[in-house]
Amino acid sequence: MASDPTDLTRRYAHELADGLRSGAFSAREVTDAHLAAAERDNRGLHAWLTIDASTARRQADAADQTLAAARSEGPAALAALPALLGLPVALKDLVSVEGGQCTAGSRILEGYHAPYDAHITERLRASGAVLLGKTNMDEFAMGSSTEHSAFGPTSNPWDLDRVPGGSSGGSAAAVAAFNAPFGIGTDTGGSIRQPAGLCGIVGMKPTYGRVSRYGIVAFASSLDQIGPFARDSRDAAALLHAVAGRDERDSTSAPMPVPDSLLGLAASDDAAAGALRGKRLGLPREYFVAGMEPGVEARVREAVAALETAGAIVEEVSLPHTEYGLATYYIVAPAEASANLARYDGIRYGPGRRDGDTLANVLATRGEGFGAEVKRRIMLGTYALSAGYYDAFYLKAQKVRTLIKADFDRLWADGFDALVAPTSPTVAFRFGARLADPVAMYLSDACTLPVNMAGLPGVSIPCGLSEGLPVGLQLIGAPWTEAELFGLARGYEAITADAPWRSVEPAQLAQAADPAGPTPAERAAGLAA
Amino acid sequence: MASLSRDDVAHVAHLARLGLTEAELGRLEGELNHILDQYGRLTELDTDAIAPTAQTIELENILRDDVVAPSLSQAAALANAAAARDGFIVVSAVLDRGD
């Protein structure tokens, strides 16, 4: 589908930043173009739970004043402007924005208004970003399809009958559908990388501790990490740079310097491709799992071959405890979730029941307020932590976690620069396809969740199409190597810059914009019937 | 691995303070046992000599000075409560007055 070359929504964030500085267009024009796209597509895609047009326009106007002042001062003032000035961002609806809703996709937080900004919200404001609104997600980030949102599912812009992945499916769909150049997600077992893969965009889960989680609704605290979505690696790296770094209010955020090289990824394809030469990449054989679609495996192996042609050294490696990752994750994550979600009792906030005694009110509030997947995980986690079962489940899983992490550590000690793997074993699946069997849904994350168990950074980048749907290539690195991973991602983008699939836009954008077309909820109901 | 009876499921629901319907308890009995079957795989691994991993970055003893810093106002902290009075959140009585 040919797009209008003057359409500002089709530009990368770094192109928009250049145009804002040169005065080719205003921040207000950039914001208005994205707001129009978001509002137009929201019936057909339902990527957004709220679109805050008036606040976004105010922020854009303030950015225009800052830009005008800097332009009149001269080149040094322009160069000193914050990187994200005037650029729109989509926030997953578990990021606190003072005064705004923050539902985490749950009825139990309907009507709750965040009393303060999250750390990353403060950082985005300081960087001049325009906050367009809040995006749909699986309830409390528990899911791989966004079908577990209490507010209805989101469609994948490549095929509106299919899921965008999850749990950060709203942010991924919004960025893929040109509703925003930037999105923020969280990733506990794959919730940024898997939807990035299924929607054909870039998404990174940084090292555990890289980004402060102050003001984010918690799911599993030893695994959760915030990260960026964008349509190329330069943009994603710039967004990570803006939000990363130590914050006293999250004592798990690490006092590690945030490298400015995140802002300096090679602009020239030759330089980016040249950086691949001599890089030592491991190809973990356990990630080519049973049940992997042949088209997905073919695209990933073609990407590996392209990296080799560009001078990277690829060796098959083994991560022998991979097969235990799923069971380990589905003990650790629900256990931590059951503790984190104990706070939702309807007493201090939220639409709680008030018609019985205190215990009856809490039981009713939680029974009615949580959806089926959240209840399932709270039950699993409570059981795994209960008297008599703690050693058999939670402690055992933490020990296996040590083995999973040691598999990776051995490869870093051997000198590998990164690992290359599929992001997900399949392309985007149809609504309802995995709802009946929780274990089938959990398998969507088989290639991503070991990375969370080990606390490592991982990025998913598009590597082609299978049956017309995007395939994600996952690059996994040692702790704190986000800039190096983005350098590899940028190199891959450079060597595939002319690949025909790069210019293919999501196939059903026009249908998503149809004001008379079905909503994702109607599509899902139709497929279930 | 252990398998959960219907009574076990109801007991765990009570521990979790989840008010579940009979239909939900029945469905969860099947689903939880199906998921617990997957956990059984972990018994294949001998982990007696392995230390547990609770978190992956080696930060320890994160301390700060105990100083007064800005925080939420009482009004902001109470703003999401369904009912507040005299700076407190109104809840159902926990104790009987005895009259």
Strand order of the largest sheet of chain A: 1-3-2-4-6-5-10-11-9-7-8
Radius of gyration of chain A: 22 Å
What's the number of helices of chain B? Answer: 3
Overall geometry of chain A comes to globular
Q: State the secondary-structure class of chain A.
A: alpha/beta
Structure report:
The complex is a heterodimer of chains A (529) and B (99). By secondary structure, chain A is an alpha/beta fold. Chain A folds into 2 domains: 11-324 and 400-528, Alpha-Beta Complex (Amidase signature (AS) enzymes); 325-399, no CATH class. Helix content of chain A is 40%, strand content 12%. An 11-stranded mixed sheet of chain A has the order 1-3-2-4-6-5-10-11-9-7-8, with helices on both faces. In chain A, helix 5 links the parallel strand 2 and strand 3. The longest helix of chain A is centred in the last third of the chain and has 23 residues, at 391-413. Chain A is globular and about 65 Å long. The model of chain A has no long low-confidence stretch (mean pLDDT 96). Chain B has 3 helices and 2 strands. Chain B has a domain at 6-44: Histone, subunit A (Orthogonal Bundle). Chain B is mainly α. The mean pLDDT of chain B is 90. The longest helix of chain B is centred in the first third of the chain and has 18 residues, at 22-39. In chain B, helix 1 (6-15) packs across helix 2. Chain B starts with 5 loop residues before the first helix and ends in a 10-residue tail after the last strand. In chain B, strand 1 and strand 2 (88-89) form a beta hairpin. The chains are: A alpha/beta (529), B mainly alpha (99). Chains A and B meet through helix 11, helix 12, helix 13 and helix 14 of A and helix 1 and helix 2 of B.
What's the short version?
With 529 residues, chain A is α/β, with parallel strands linked by helices.
Note the topology:
The complex is a heterodimer of chains A (529) and B (99).
Chain A: H1 13-22, H2 27-45, E1 48-51, H3 53-73, H4 75-79, E2 88-92, H5 119-126, E3 130-135, H6 169-176, E4 182-187, H7 193-199, E5 202-205, E6 225-230, H8 233-243, H9 269-274, E7 280-284, H10 294-309, E8 313-317, H11 325-340, H12 358-369, H13 372-385, H14 391-413, E9 418-422, H15 438-442, H16 449-453, E10 458-466, E11 469-476, H17 482-495, H18 509-512, H19 520-528
Parallel strand pairs in A: 2-3, 2-4, 7-8, 7-9
Antiparallel strand pairs in A: 1-3, 4-6, 5-6, 5-10, 9-11, 10-11
Helix pairs in contact in A: 2-3, 8-17, 11-13, 11-14
Chain B: H1 6-15, H2 22-39, H3 74-78, E1 84-85, E2 88-89
Antiparallel strand pairs in B: 1-2
Helix pairs in contact in B: 1-2
